[in-house]
Every structure is written in structure tokens, then in C-alpha cells.
Amino acid sequence: MNYYLGLDIGSSSIKAALVEIKSGKSIGVVQEPEEEMSMFAQKNGWAEQEPLDWWLHICNAIKSLQKKYNVHKEQIKGIGISYQMHGLVLVDTKGNPLRKSIIWCDSRAVETGNKAFADIGVEQCAAQLLNSPANFTASKLKWVQENEPEIYKQIHKFMLPGDFIAYQFSNTINTTISGLSEGIFWDFKKDTVANFLLEYYGIHSALVPDIVDTFSMQSKVDEKGAAESGLAVGTPIFYRAGDQPNNALSLNVFNPGEVAATGGTSGVVYAVTDSLSAKESARVNNFAHVNYTKGAAARIGKLLCINGAGIQYRWLLNNLAVSSYEEMNTLASEITIGSDGVCLIPFGNGAERMLDNQEIGTRIVNMNLNNHHKGHLCRAALEGIAFSFYYGIEILKSDGINPAVIRAGNDNLFRSEIFANTVATLIQQEIEIYNTTGAIGAARAANLHTGDFESFGKNIMENDHVMTFTPFKDQKPYMEAYKNWKKELELVLNN
Known about the structure:
By secondary structure, the chain is of the alpha+beta class. It has helices spanning about 50-70, 110-120, 120-130, 135-145, 150-155, 160-170, 175-180, 195-200, 225-230, 245-250, 310-320, 325-335, 375-400, 415-425, 440-445, 455-465, 475-495, and strands spanning about 5-10, 15-20, 25-30, 50, 75-85, 90, 100, 155-160, 175, 185, 190-195, 210, 215-220, 235-240, 260-265, 265-275, 285-290, 300-305, 345, 360-365, 405-410, 430-435, 465-470.
């Protein structure tokens, strides 16, 4: 039996998955390390990780998979890589990292990006980059140039985290259009590297890696990569993408109108469009999706992030006298739609991009100490998070997104019927739930270099579909509850 290997490089752990090539069925997933990976924060708002630590954990994960499932290295016929987006890895001419990686949640380059946005102009950034340069990889590279000139002088190439891991396997440095777009290095108008931004930042184009197709023979494991990872020499790397585009791929989201949603600690709504409109470029990120190709109809992923999502429900679990999410869901189910007027504004996890980067915190309003109890809080939390998803989808709709199908992972929030039914009923769209992960999606994507998207989608439907939430016909009570919540939110925003 032959397999594809999928790797998902997160900031807390590495996940590795084996998928059977013929059926697309997941064989198993392992995680390394057992404890969360650490982050280095020399100053408040900074976040760095050692790239070679990712590689060490990947090698351990591969060996663990091979041992656990009795798989020989020759049976692994290809690799797919998913990785934490927006990170910056810098290497010298020998391929050695020059410093720790500045990762996605590091905010040191905010001012750098904001200045670029103001100097270059909103219009040009929206038309060509589809985003503000903001705190993305290009701005982080400019920060290094200005603050660490000795390191900057030694740079041979910059890479995203997934590019670095592919390099460790293969001794070949390359990247993808999708990857460059997430770093805000891609000019969508000219369909080339964003030279005007490089010139503005004073970054030489020689630092940009070679570009390969997302689904292609990108490189092959060399002798050093094989010795360290336990894979066979010549094993091809067939796929690479950032974690959010990869999550969408894992849910078979490729075409306009298809939307992927995730509801973990934070929430994400990722909608695919063929439009280059970036009307909401300050609140929504726009990246080349995994199936974006030059000269063809555009495939853009509009990414809307909701920081204050599952973290709210987890906080209640930890601080109410309850023993489990199941108990909380039961308590919530006994309360009527609208939580008897109690509203929870669930934005207590830092600044919210979709609220123009305001940091408004979590608020509980209209609580009557005589009539309301923890069941009302549980329901108000689930509804408040669901309402924030719908609020985000309203923003996406104003930017031309018309959801035709919504697919979500079987994670914490989407396991709650109240949450999923509220979102489905407000949007008036079915929500399909799938039991999959980024590592499994990356493993399956290794087969897409063949162009067989039909079998890819069929494998997901046959292997992963859990259930479908159908919207209730009577939308009115849900819409009334949403309008009450939105009114409370606007009072806070306009204060």
C-alpha cells in the first residue's frame, strides 16, 4: 500500500498525517511535540520561533508515524505541506537561518506597513496588492532591514515557513504565488512580483525565491533531507500552502461561492471569489487561493478573522460552575432564542481587524440578576459568537461574496447545534460539517499535481462528511436577536 504524507506546521505544534493514495482515506495523524512549542518574545508584541525546531519536530513526527503504522519509507510517494502564514525566515548563501523566524502573531511591523499604506496610497494597494501591506511578511522584512542591517546584508533569500521546510527536505529554495500573496509580495494587476512595493521598501528582487506551481513537482528529498527525516531519497514535494488556504482546500473549497469556516479559539471565514475587488481591504485579507493561476480566471481567498470566538466559550467553561462543554450546551438549549435579552459581545481576544482593529473586549449586557442564570450566559455566548460570524459574513457580502455553500471542520464551536443552527439560519444556507484536519488535507493535496480535483472532492465527501445543518424556515426570531446584538455592538463601537 502507498501513501502521501501531509505536514501542518503550526505555531504550537507540528501535525503529520498519512493518507492512502488510492482511497484518500486518512490512516493516522501524530503531533509533535507533546507540549506546545515555545515562542520567544524579547519585547511585548514580538513573537519568534527557531525554524530548525520546526524541522526537528517534523523529523520526529515522520519517524513516529512510520513506527506507529508500520510504514516503510519507500511506501511514501509524495509530500504536501501546510504552514503558519505570514512568517519570515531569512537564510544565508549556505541556507542557514540568520535569525529566528518572525512569526504571524508578531506585531513589530505594524507601523512599517501602515506608513507604506499611507505613502503608496489606499487605491494602489487595494488595486494591486488587494491588501494594506500592514504587518505582513514584506513589512517584517523591511523591519529587519531598518533594525538589523548586519543581518539584512547577509540575506540570500527570504522564505515563508513552508518554503523553509521544503528547503530542509530538498536543498532547493522556491515558493508559490499563493505564498508570495500572503506575504503581500504579489501584484494581482500585473500578475507578477510586486516590484513597486519592493522598490518602495528598498528590497532587492534577488531576495525573492523562484516560483513554482502550488500543485506540481516542486522539489525532491535529497540525501541530507532523507537521512534526517527518514524518508526515501527522491520523494517528491507536490504541494505547499498557508494554513488558511489549506484549511479551505481540506474542506473542498475551490470555487466562487464556496466558503470554509473554522471555529476554534478564534474563528475564520474564508470565501473564494473570482473578483479582484478589495473594497474591504482594511478589514478583510485577500490572498491568491491555492488554485490561482496566472492568466486564468482569478481565484482569490477572502479571509475574515474573528479573534474572539471559541476562547469566549472556553473562558466560561473555566469560570462557571460547569464540568464540560456538553453541560454548557444542555444549559443553553433550555433558554429561548435571544437569551431573554442577554447579549454577549465576544471580542476579548485582542484587536479585531473586522472592527477596524478596535480592541473593545468582551461585554455582557442586559443581565438581570434576579431572572438570569448561567444557562442564559451559555446561550448568549454561543449566540454572540454566531452573531459575530454573521456580522463578518455581512462584511464579505458587501465586498461581493454570495455564499452558495458553507463547509466547516468538526471543531469545538461547530459541534454545538445552537451555534451551527444560528449561523445557518441567519445566512439561510446549509452548513456541511467535515471531520478533517490541515495535515490530512495537505496529504491529499499531494495528489492534485495530477489535476484530478474530482476524485479529491469525492474522497472528502466519502471519508469526512459528518452531518449537515439545515437552516430553520422561521428566520425571524434569530434575525431579531441578531439585530438586538448588533445594536449593542454599535453602541460600543460608536462610543
